[in-house]
Write a structure and sequence with these properties.
Layout lengths: L2 H23 L2 H19 L3 H4 L17 H13 L1
Length: 84
């Protein structure tokens, strides 16, 4: 399942949770709080492209080549460089 499909399913589940919260508690404030917390949680887990942000900040505005190593490999290389 790709990130787009997971994002779509998470947003649908959040919408259902907001409706249930609003109906059960009869509180628009609690429904809005559920929505706000859910959007922040989904954004924090699904939206960041950590490999993109793992680069030096001066390179964030340039496109990232498809053949670039993974962030884990780059971090492992940096870790080995520190101990040499």
């Amino acid at each position: 399942m790709g990130r787009d499909e997971m994002l779509r399913r998470s947003l649908v589940a959040l919408a259902a949770a907001v409706v249930v919260t609003g109906v059960v508690t009869a509180s628009v404030r609690k429904a809005a709080a559920t929505y706000g917390f859910g959007i922040l949680a989904i954004a924090g887990m699904l939206l960041p492209d950590w490999e993109f942000f793992d680069r030096d900040y001066s390179q964030w505005l340039t496109p990232m080549p498809a053949s670039r190593r993974t962030a884990a490999e780059a971090a492992a290389d940096r870790e080995h460089d520190v101990w040499k």
